[in-house]
């Protein structure tokens, strides 16, 4: 296990360096001058422009800028936002909590519904339920997120008036700063909010979670279904039946455990694409998360924010996949014992 | 009354008859060998007895009695109480027949738990005893081992341990040694026969290897294309086969091929869904077939006590067809 982890972390370092180079190069390839964008329509004199460029360190050659950036990272300094003058890490943390909360509840939604639906579709193969599940998941998978989000808002929030339109909590909601707030609305409102605040936070979370969870849901349904179909044909399922094991137990214990191996892989991969989906979902629902933060910073050519933001996100995805790899060992004894 | 009585059992997949109206009996403590080429319906007929044929397969029978239970009309729940307890089965490929996600101990104890219950400690002790019984060294530690850590022979021993966990009255072994090394094959058969003798259990040994059942079985059932073509006591059938197919199977054994360049073989293959011939199903491959064989299907008829054959011209003791 230790060797396995060591190997994994060995891969992490080159990946990490690669990400820094890519984000740095791409951000600087985008035309546009952060100083001019900050100045806005008023414009500014060439002298003042040069002075600001020097102040931000943008007058140096690109390779030098890159090395300064890299050295900063290794000192734990991710840079300071051009716009807010706040260190990137400090800007990142609260926004990440918002995204994390949204992503987790979207994933819970996808897994909670996806696996049972997939199992049922496989068990009742060829039935109306199976066909419905398959075609709906294809529809869900091919639906543009922003369109789906807006349609849901129109229907559920505007016409039926069931959930709020946007944001994490209602504007009127007030949480006292003197409490040890975690930044996760569900937790904060539950422990320190007034009566009804928690419900309010949940209501705000429902629609964005459904929107963000739709694609993972569709993928999990299909993957679970096909994995189950494959496993149910295996010899060991026949053995279990010959032992007199009940049908329910065969499906839930003997088959599902084996079918979970590819499904867990897919869930891990979905975490990455969910961050992409979060950008659109957060835009539609005005969710103050990293998706919106990165898009806004990119439009302002806020180089440090974009570079470091992408770097953190990439590192997170790598770490998630590392956790998934370790999960395999728990699910599948064959991987655990491989030397 | 016989322990297992099968009458006119048929299994159909759509139009294709995988098993075609077979009837036989297995007595308490009897060893029955079912032999035939691949595709002759040996496995499917036993799966049907176990109730393991899934849609679209269709099982019909005039009678399907096991130990006083009518397996035809029994409810799914009542069948599960019998299957795995009173009648158990082991399969061809032991490496894929064990669930890779669970330990050997778990899989043995599951069978005990379902049928006998008992405390966890009792089940564990029973599992250790079973592993000991099937000749696995260091059984207490082997309980925590996963199937991929076992060899093929060891896996088959575990499968046998699972099958005999609840002291079955009938054990069906579906080609138990086909996937194993020759050296292991003998050991596994020996183990099965030992267990059979010890508990006076009935054993149905399905195989395409006549030599394997030659010494072990009391009764031999020869199947071809889903039908029974010959039934007889083991010694008699080997000395003087009545059916040309049985004769061909015996001739193809390496033991009969001394001083010859090639192994004798029957040309052609078992007919499938689209090439079932008229008359006797063996007629395209039978060296003795005449006009009658190509038009009229012979019936399985008794020649003497315990001896039945499905042929128009059963062979004489010298091995020649008895044309009238």
UniProtKB/TrEMBL annotation, chain A:
Taxonomic lineage from the root: Bacteria, Pseudomonadati, Pseudomonadota, Gammaproteobacteria, Orbales
Transmembrane segments: 9-30, 102-123, 144-162, 201-221, 259-285, 305-331
Every ABC transmembrane type-1 domain range: 96-328
NCBIfam families named in the record: PRK10914.1
Organism: Frischella japonica
Subcellular location(s) of the protein: Cell membrane
Keywords: Cell membrane, Membrane, Transmembrane, Transmembrane helix, Transport
CDD domains cross-referenced by the UniProt entry: TM_PBP2
Keyword Cell membrane attributed: yes
Keyword Transmembrane helix belongs to the record: yes
Highest taxon of source: Bacteria
Membrane topology reported for the UniProt record: Multi-pass membrane protein
Family: Belongs to the binding-protein-dependent transport system permease family. OppBC subfamily.
InterPro entries (alphabetical): BPD_transp_1_N (IPR045621), MetI-like (IPR000515), MetI-like_sf (IPR035906)
Designated name of the protein: Dipeptide ABC transporter permease DppB
Protein encoded by which gene: dppB
Automatic annotation (TrEMBL), chain B:
Reaction(s) this enzyme catalyzes, per UniProt: a dipeptide(out) + ATP + H2O = a dipeptide(in) + ADP + phosphate + H(+)
SUPFAM superfamilies in UniProt: P-loop containing nucleoside triphosphate hydrolases
Subcellular location: Cell inner membrane
SMART domains to which the protein is assigned, alphabetical: AAA
This protein's UniProt keywords: ATP-binding, Cell membrane, Membrane, Nucleotide-binding, Transport
Enzyme class (EC, first level): translocase
Domain ABC transporter: 4-250
GO MF terms held by the record: ATP binding
EC number(s) on file: 7.4.2.9
InterPro entries linked to this entry: AAA+_ATPase, ABC_Ni/Peptide_Import, ABC_transporter-like_ATP-bd, ABC_transporter-like_CS, Oligopep_ABC_C, P-loop_NTPase
CDD domains from the UniProt entry: ABC_NikE_OppD_transporters
Topological relation to the membrane, as annotated: Peripheral membrane protein
Family in the record: Belongs to the ABC transporter superfamily.
PANTHER family recorded: DIPEPTIDE TRANSPORT ATP-BINDING PROTEIN DPPD (PTHR43297:SF2), OLIGOPEPTIDE TRANSPORT ATP-BINDING PROTEIN APPD (PTHR43297)
Record protein name field: ABC-type dipeptide transporter
Protein species of origin: Frischella japonica
Gene that encodes the chain: dppD
